[in-house]
Amino acid sequence: MAQSEQGPEVRQAAAQGGGARQLLGMKTASSSVESWRIRLQLMKPVTWIPLVWGVVCGAAASGQFHWTLADVSASLLCMVMSGPLLAGYTQTINDYYDREIDAINEPYRPIPSGAISLGQVKLQIWLLLLAGLAVAYGLDRWAGHERDTLLLLALGGSFVSFIYSAPPLKLKQNGWLGNYALGASYIALPWWAGQALFGQLTWATALLTLAYSLAGLGIAVVNDFKSVEGDRALGLASLPVVFGIRRASWISAAMIDLFQLLMVAVLIAVGQHLAAVILVLLVLPQMVFQDIWLLRDPVAYDVNYQASAQPFLVLGMLVTALAIGHSALIMAG
């Protein structure tokens, strides 16, 4: 009796949770016939967060951001460009080219479920791309750039997104190259955009963030665990397919930790010792959550791991960015 009475409540809670997951673009989402929900699901809003945060880190690293209406407005526009527009473009084009894999791994996704036509998907891809490039061009004008730095970054990132998903290159077919391209797109590119918007993007910063992106490679591997079945069936050489789930989980953890600890060494080298200590303290809980979730069952607990560990990763990025910006100001003074 009690079990039957709880049935509708459980189903309603599951439907509500599935609806929220659908809007965020997460796995195990529910289906919907509402056009705006379908289009938002294609754009996977949950993936916008690190790009928005990357812009914040770049602005901090520039040492030139000020809490004025103009700077705050420009930074918000840069976040919109990096997140909803260009990350939305990236996720939509990825779904377009991954429709056969998603039919195996995530059949509830808008394209394999038939909730949206391929023509509508193509239109969304073009609208998001052109809107992102237009915002980048406008931000270059606001910043007074002689060279359209943000537009070039937006074009470069969009091209990487295309070759990541689309044949014949389809970088995601190679676990190492594809995941590094993804990690760099989520860490280095938005950081460069935020720093170029308010200050100068230097080669030193570019190389530093590309090294940091190797930690992002480890994060990208976490996203591959849910797709092992489809990747294996269609011949994609993701790291979990090549090395097996257990070994790939150790590779992921090692990449995430080692390259953050490399940033600790860099901060010590530039005299930012307090920031180095804080970064170490932020890496330690990530290791704990790796032991609890990632290394035990990454297929079942990938979402748990990312929800618990990634806040420490992104906070570490901000600590590093602030330290770099402080070091730059000291050298300039």
Automatic annotation (TrEMBL):
Transmembrane segments: 46-67, 123-139, 151-169, 175-194, 201-221, 261-289, 309-332
Keywords carried by this UniProt record: Chlorophyll biosynthesis, Membrane, Transferase, Transmembrane, Transmembrane helix
Keyword Transcription regulation attributed: no
Location in the cell: Membrane
CDD domains reported for this sequence: PT_UbiA_chlorophyll
The enzyme's E.C. designation: 2.5.1.62
InterPro entries linked to this entry: Chl_synth (IPR006372), ChlG (IPR011799), Prenyltransferase_related (IPR050475), UbiA_prenyltransferase (IPR000537), UbiA_sf (IPR044878)
Membrane topology: Multi-pass membrane protein
A GO CC term attached to the entry: membrane
GO biological process: chlorophyll biosynthetic process
Coiled-coil spans in chain: none
Molecular function terms, GO-annotated: chlorophyll synthetase activity
Class of the enzyme per the UniProt entry, highest EC level: transferase
Name of the protein described by the UniProt record: Chlorophyll synthase ChlG
Organism: Aphanocapsa feldmannii 277cV
Organism taxonomic ancestry: Bacteria, Bacillati, Cyanobacteriota, Cyanophyceae, Oscillatoriophycideae
